[in-house]
Amino acid sequence: MPVYKGSCHCGAVKFSFESEPITSGLSCNCSYCERRAAIMLNPPVADADLKREIRDYALSCYQFGAKVAKHYYCNQCGNYTFHETMRKPGYFRVNLGCVEGVNSFELEREVFNGRDLL
């Protein structure tokens, strides 16, 4: 399987993971995801399989609602990089806009109805 690498805008948060070739993505219509308009990796990556390299405590977390999902972002540049899912804790969805060699604007995507889960 290919190894994908990604980072936030400033490079303080870097990550990598193995995945089948990325040919599509996932969007969510919950109140938070709708505002950030990210296209995410589908299926999610297990915690142990998402390698992270964080510089100077640059990774911050935002939670809302039931506070199960953990949305991570770089506190230096503000870029959302990945999040731990609500439906499958211990698994992460990656912001495909942060992944090298992936043009998230060209991907077909499924829309997940997160709005009606909360």
Characterization of the model:
By secondary structure, the protein is mostly beta strands. It is 5% helix and 38% strand. The longest helix is centred in the first third of the chain and has 6 residues, at 31-36. The radius of gyration is 13 Å and the shape is globular. The N and C termini lie far apart (35 Å).
Shape: globular
Biggest beta-sheet profile: 5 strands, antiparallel
Residue windows where pLDDT falls under 50 for at least 5 positions: none
What order do the helices and strands follow? EEEHEEEEEEE
Helix content: under 10%
* Number of DSSP-assigned strands: 10
Number of helices, counting only DSSP H or I runs of 4 residues or more = 1
Beta-strand percentage range: 35-45%
| Spatial strand order of the main sheet | 4-9-8-7-6
Q: How widely separated are the two ends?
A: 35 Å
**Structure class:** mainly beta
Mean pLDDT: 95
